Amino acid sequence: MPAKSAAQQKAAGAALAAKRGDAPKSKLRGASKSMEESTTRKELEEMASTPRKGKPEHTGKAA
Questions:
Q1: In this predicted structure, what is the pLDDT of residue 61?
Q2: Which pLDDT value is given to residue 63?
């Protein structure tokens, strides 16, 4: 499942680094923390490897 936004791709990358042991889990916050706990390593690899070019920074409703 590819990332839908640049922010989601970045969070997946941070969560993947923690899951691999390259970064401490204590440094995770917000979405990356919940992703690390609830998402498999394979899913994180797919999201983190999504190219950012052409992706919006964030998705959702504009206020």
A1: 59
A2: 47
- C-alpha span between 20 and 42 (Å, rounded): 11
Tell me, rounded to whole angstroms, the distance of Cα 53 from its chain centroid: 16
Residues with Cβ within 8 Å of 41's Cβ and at least 6 positions away in sequence, in order, are: 16, 19, 20
Mean pLDDT by 10 residues, the chain (63 residues): 87 93 92 92 91 81 52
d(CA 63, CA 48): 28
Q: Do residues 35 and 12 touch, judged by C-beta distance below 8 A?
A: yes
Given phi > 0 = left and psi -120 to 50 = alpha, else beta, which region is 54? left
Burial of 20 per CB tally in 10 Å (0-12, 13-18, 19+): exposed
Q: So what's the pLDDT on residue 25?
A: 92
